[in-house]
Amino acid sequence: MMIRTTLVGGLLYAATLACLCAFAALIGRHRKLGGWLYTLGFASALVALASFWVQARHPPLQNLFGVFLCLGVLTYPLSLFCRRFLGVKSWAGDALIGFALLVPAAFVFRPELEALPPALQSPLLGAHVGAYMLAYVILLKAGALSIGAFGGRRDSSADRRGISERDAYRMIRLGFPLLTLGLVLGAVWGKVAWGDYWHWDPKELWSLTMWLIYVGYFRVRALLGPRHPRVSGVIALTGAAVILVTLLWVNLGRLFAGLHSYAT
Amino acid sequence: MSDEGRAEQYVEIGTLGLLATLSVVGAFLGAEEARLMFNSAPLAAFWVAVTAYLAARLFQGRVSRTAAGPFVASFGALLVLLGGMCGSDTAHRVAATLFGSQKIPSGVMVLGKGQQSSLVATPDLERIAGTLPFCVRLVDFRIERYAMRDGGGGAAAAGGIRNYDSEVVVLQGDREVLRKVIRVNEPMHYGGYHFYQEGYDAQRQEYTILLVKSDAGVSFAYAGFVLLCGGVFWACYAGPLWAFFRGRGQTQ
């Protein structure tokens, strides 16, 4: 790890620190202060993203630095959307997810400016990867909410488990269509660029696994109903784990080298 | 729900679990081994069974027609599977045996500047895969490189390949019927085939390599993609959106 003295680096450090402080303030019930800090963190991350985008001259989705920066930025507007339209209130949890997503961009991956190879010079880069990024943030949040479904055994805990299950279901219902769109756009792009929709590439297979897990989530919920929050919770957490595998292990591990390896 | 319906749901969940497990196994095996595994006889039978089951559910009305989203999404998934099957090497072999079809499933053309050909080689260039019912002539092949500040890559990108393209004409006899520049992400479509910019002579840039793919099943697959996405979006968003706007209407 090296300390960055660039504008993007400074903004990212500020955003990461602000999200962590926002989380601490929010769990300490200082809602107003927490809200301001979270907003400040988002603003810093957004300026860092805009600055990196201008330097790169293309959507900064080619490497894991750009991907994690985008994921971190997306958490804040998603929080607002979920509060306003879905009734899912998890301000502190969202600040923590924002912090967790910005840490790899701030401290692990380097902000390398790379020229796009011919295959990536397509409008589908933004659409395909953008749909996936949005779906990932939403479904990771669903996984985090599902942890609440494994709470204590008392009656009051049963209520909380039910609320966690309901919130996770609403998030998965929001994210799954975007996951489907990302998968389909990837298939269309594969056909246009490489001649086939499907190449049995490790990343494609992990993406298919992820999609099947969420189809399974809906099937299991339709079968058992919302009264088995732990069963739904296990599937939602498995889906979130597969997202992390697809995002990190497939890109970083040599085990899964394939057509998508340039994403490193 | 009846016991029969419940058992059917368990089978569906089990099938999804099996397919997810096979996908993970395939990811560990690597692309080439995974392709062989998913196209092996047992799994080909599995794909046919899944497709037949999906079709039976749709046409026996077991997927509720009132739930439009899941119905449309299931129909879309069925079309994607059918499109994949129609475009497969096996489907081309069956069509050749039953109907005498001469269509080539896939192959490559290697063309030098000014050269024309209708021969398609196998991807490993070992033998001739077939002959197209028309000729393709390479007019020109160009490579575009990044300048110092292009593409955001700065000095690291200078001299790197920005794009490469082949200008070709399609000839029916002596008549020119199509002229097109084929680039990565911009294939040419003519006479039931797609032509992709696959590669080039890296040393002297004297020839280009075009990937030739049959377009069998493509329309099915694209229609399936649209229906799958439309159905999933409808199933997941229509209800909450309807409830939200109805709630707003009532409060106003």
Structural write-up:
With 264 residues, chain A is an all-alpha fold. Chain A has two domains: 1-111; 122-264. Chain A has helices at 7-27, 31-56, 64-86, 91-108, 124-146, 155-194, 202-224, 229-252. In chain A, helix 1 runs antiparallel to helix 4, helix 6 (155-194) packs antiparallel against helix 7 (202-224) and helix 6 packs parallel to helix 8 (229-252). The model of chain A has no long low-confidence stretch (mean pLDDT 89). With 252 residues, chain B is an alpha+beta fold. Chain B has two domains: 3-96 and 217-251; 104-212, Sandwich (Tick-borne Encephalitis virus Glycoprotein, domain 1). Chains A and B meet through helix 6 and helix 7 of A and helix 1, helix 2, helix 6, strand 4 and strand 7 of B.
Number of DSSP helical runs of chain A: 8
Strand content of chain B: 25-35%
Distance from first to last alpha carbon of chain B: 39 Å
Instruction: Work out the helicity level of chain B.
Output: 40-55%
Q: Report on the biggest sheet of chain B.
A: 4 strands, antiparallel
Share of residues in helices of chain A = over 70%
Question: Could you spell the SSE succession of chain B in H and E letters?
Answer: HHHHHEEEHEEEEEH
Shape of chain A: globular
